Amino acid sequence: MEAVQNEKGDATRGQISIHTENIFPIIKKFLYSDHEIFLRELVSNAVDATQKLRQLASFGEFGGELGELKVTVALNEEAKTITISDNGIGMTAEEIKKYINQIAFSGASDFLEKYKDKTDDKGQIIGHFGLGFYSAFMVAEKVEIVTRSYRDEAEAARWVCDGSTEFELTPADRTERGTDVILHIAPDSEEFLDKSRLRGILDKYARFLPVPIEFDGQTINNTTPIWTKAPSDLTDEDYKTFYRELYPMSEEPLFWIHLNVDYPFNLTGILYFPRIKNELRFQREKIQLYSRQVFITDEVKDVVPDFLMMLHGVIDSPDIPLNVSRSFLQADANVKKINGYITRKVADKLNDLFNADRKAFEEKFDDIGLFIKYGILSDDKFYEKAKNFVLLKNTEGAYSTLDEYREKVQANQTDKNETLVLLYTTDRKQQDAYIASAVRRGYDVLLMDNVIDPHFINALEYKLEKVHFVRVDADTLDKLIDKGLNNESVLSEADRTKLKEVFEQVLDNKTLTVSVEAQPTDELPVTITLPEFLRRMKDMSALSGEQSFYGNMPVGYNVVVNANHPLIGRILTETDADAQKSLVMQVYDLALLAQNMLTGADLTAFVRRTVERLS
């Protein structure tokens, strides 16, 4: 810093020194995209100053009265100023020269280095780079500091700068220790000269700071949020009350996980499992990231595993600096460790809940199944634990683990190739006829109507040996679970060929593939199916929201004619062409109706034709 003293000897003028070796943190400062950050930075600095004084008192290096330690934010709309005041450690003129004029020389870092052998409670000091103060110039055309150190015989000092490299440092009239930072708001930032605007910023960033923050005559923060306390000191009601404080319009959470680790990184927090609908939505604003109780962001991707992005709650880690950026999160080793820790903690909690009360776990599973299934898809380590508590639910509402279900259906649903075939439905009502047919054969049908189930099914087939999932309406039952047994047909091969030609001629649809097969007489006369492979590809395309090769393909359904059904025999023997066509359309429309595919004019025609036959 270059400085000159005036003739009276009571003022210093000079230029702020910018160290070239510290230029990168300065550049990062300009990456703040939202100017409201200035208030977070200045209030955080004021909290630091207060916390430093409290620590000095605990070291025995300050013997005075601490008094009521707090930070005050004051708005003067007429003077167009915002003042952030604290009664903390204060500064001498020399310290202003060191910590303010030499940009990026952090007072917090210097303080921690000096007292590193006396305390391990680094979590109380927020600042990292000393750049936060200069965020004031994003909104102010002039900034004043009026400060007095806690030290005996210290003289008060006043520093003024208009945002250039020039400053003025003079003695000041201040009798109490502490610091006032006075911002003279620039014309293009007068939006911040609004009480409700400032209150909103404070509610966002200072809501849980560890020192009382006073604004407009009220203390606006909770200095001891429950994530800073030991779980043994908290009740269920404490957790629920805090959840209501965070999300006042939400339903009560299912359960929660209290995070607390100090090695190899520092992390505290509480994650809540909310009640969710059957939809894959990432409400990324629902988990809040803090550093030493200072709000950083609600964009927690990379910190929290993808499959847990729908959780609610708070994560606080001093290992994540305030000037966090997306690229920092992606590259930081501590963030990757935190991500892995959260995954393990969630898996352990779910496993504990399952083992402690199976019935209660099953009652919650419709809400938490989406988390668990997505976790299995995205994280192999999570799967290794989750495979013991992920549940499959059948159409009767019974739940089974993977091992339990295999044992339950293995004897009856293993095909001729020794592959276990698991039947499922995505719509219990729409596919009821097919479910009923399967149940008559003694088969069990799983309910897989979760939005993520198409991908989940693929994952299980990959992870489980000789297991294949097939939707219950993907083919005839004899083909779904092919045990190598053939039903006898009452029709000759010539009759089956003739019958196939009749259906192809009447339906006259090249996207339909007609086949005539021998099936039990209690099955439908005609069944419409879509091969499992094509159906699953289309389902996954719809989930991703993107059109794929399969998503753009025309739907090619199979029309399976039951050669052994009495109605089919009538069609074959009908000599009147119009009557034969009417019968073909009737049984075909019945098949469409069973799949909920009969609509519009075709449905109207079917109703009229049915009425005529009953008349």
Number of strands: 25
Q: Determine the N-to-C terminus distance.
A: 105 Å
Low-confidence residue ranges:
20-31, 120-129, 547-554
Quick check: average pLDDT? 84
Structural notes for this entry:
- The structure is a single chain.
- With 615 residues, the protein is of the alpha+beta class.
- It folds into 4 domains: 2-219, Histidine kinase-like ATPase, C-terminal domain (Heat Shock Protein 90), CATH 3.30.565.10; 226-359, 2-Layer Sandwich (Ribosomal Protein S5, domain 2), CATH 3.30.230; 390-480, Rossmann fold; 493-614, Heat shock protein 90, C-terminal domain (Four Helix Bundle (Hemerythrin (Met), subunit A)), CATH 1.20.120.790.
- It contains 20 helices and 25 strands.
- Strands 1-2-9-8-7-10-5-4-11-12 form a 10-stranded mixed beta sheet, with helices on one face. Strands 13-14-17-15-16 form a 5-stranded mixed beta sheet, with helices on both faces.
- Strand 4 (71-76) and strand 5 form a beta hairpin.
- Helix 8 (333-356) packs parallel to helix 10 (380-386) and helix 9 (358-378) packs across helix 13.
- The chain is elongated, with a radius of gyration of 36 Å.
Quickly list its features.
single chain; 615 residues; alpha+beta; Heat Shock Protein 90; Ribosomal Protein S5, domain 2; Rossmann fold; 4 domains; 10-stranded mixed beta sheet; 5-stranded mixed beta sheet; elongated; ATP-binding; Chaperone protein HtpG; HATPase_C_sf; ATP hydrolysis activity
